[in-house]
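Chain X:
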Amino acid sequence: MKLELKAVKHSEWASQETNCYQATIYLEGKPFASVQNEGFGGPTSIYRDHRFKGDMKAWNYKKERVNKYLQMNFEDVWDFEEAIVSWSDKALVDWLIMKDLRNAMKRKILFKKADGKLYEAKATIEAIRSQYPDAQILNDMQTQEAFRIFSMA
């Protein structure tokens, strides 16, 4: 089952106790649900996306299937009824981290030295490699591997 969070709109300034955002959840490449959180500490709300093909009964059936799938396949999900909401909140955090990673890599070279810490420098990849031969250079990695290292820092 392929779930994706797309059309993300996040407001840093309006996020108080929770992330203020709205987004669309795509199921198997098609719009499925809209999610939003006001940012005041309340729960994330989920609604049927207006582009979903099918009636409310079909949407509820698919939502139940998605919740069961998430309950069985992701450790972060603890509440069966709200599995899709928990997933969307985590997907938003991952989206924000990826956004930060891409912005940081546009400006500087990011690398992890043998001490396990993440560093950044305004230099070339070759210069970093020659100075720190054992360094892992995030700008020169597959995106998912760079994300994994960056998100742990």
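Chain Y:
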Amino acid sequence: MKKTIIFILLILSSICLFACKSENGSKIKINPDQGQTTRPGTSTNTDDPNKENQNTGEENPIKKEKVLLGIDLIDENIDIFKGKKVGLITNATGINSNYESTIDILFKKVNLTSLFAPEHGIRGANPAGGTVTDETDPVTNLPVYSLYGSTSTPTEAMLKNVDVMAIDIQDVGARFYTYIYTMANAMKACKQYNKEFVVFDRPNPVSGSVVEGTVLDTTYSSFIGMYPIVQRHGMTIGEIAKYFNEEQNIGCNLTIIKMKNWNRDMYFDECDVPWVLPSPNMPTLDTATVYTGTCLFEGTNLSEGRGTTRPFELIGAPWIDAIELANALNSLNLKGVFFRPASFTPTTSKFNGQQCFGVQVHVTDRTIFESVKTGYAMLETIRTMYPDNFQVLNASSQRCTLNLLTGCDYITKHTYTLDQQFKLIEKGSEEFSETRKPYLLY
């Protein structure tokens, strides 16, 4: 009898122990790499940007089309440059489909006399907002003139040895990306000093079929939003040059060397061309996909993920509850996106060296994902959940960063509900879709 009782007690103890382990295992887990306790769905590891790429996997490989870039077609268009001195605006993204630098290609094939550097420099190594200085290119020994320092517009002296100014640079399809305004200013200078302007066209990495956002109020015109376009304009750099030249009355002598085999529905990873970081905090196509929405956080006291391997995908601050925020955002049922609670520690920029809590933005279906609405919804949710912590930086200034990024003041002033903000986005998207039609090349 005593043996039977002991045996029964042992069985009951084992059952209880298993149940406890199972219950605890469903609530918390130990991160073996960092020795930290996290809840399911949270992560402190953002070191490998390839682990969670939404568009990889052998089961559904992405079909690639052999797109020929503008620079790939240089030989077909060589007459444009014959007998002329050529200047070039470019950076590390200026390469052909075989990874050859546009600088080197033009140096061999035409009379390349001058180089011009946008934000981040001719080789793309400078941080965001950092001044770019004049220098000499170490490979060609050509002068490199900065267009992101004491001046953003080529001067008459810079253009003295130039007949044709060309640009070959990878844009990301966002209103606040500065390369298109470097181009616009160069086009104005070419008009003023009677120079030709040539664009080697490249894909819009987030496709040319989607237009989303609010049209910029020119009261808030700046180098992160100069003209009345929307946040996600859906145009190639050649098309946006045509829009600037005609719609905004620049009126320079413009030639666009079009791509071959590109169509408007293509994302960059569907083009068989190399991806090079357009800027230090634009490492992947995933970044570019969310950027037109989450860049808004640059104008707030939240980290936009700079100083991590997932900039603009990770959004947070030390005072956020990651799980509560993720639940709140997922309850909005926004299209094509999931918000995963996450923690991260930026190594630069806001909260340098401090652990932040927030979300990682996972695009689950980019064909229906609405980046601008997503960014506005995130901003609205966070400021509502954390009214004592959330701040718009320099909110009292009409020229505060959030106003310049949104192209208005009503987001800073919190004038409208989220539903009303969405209606304004829909209205702006429809308006600009019509405005851009005459300038589309594909």
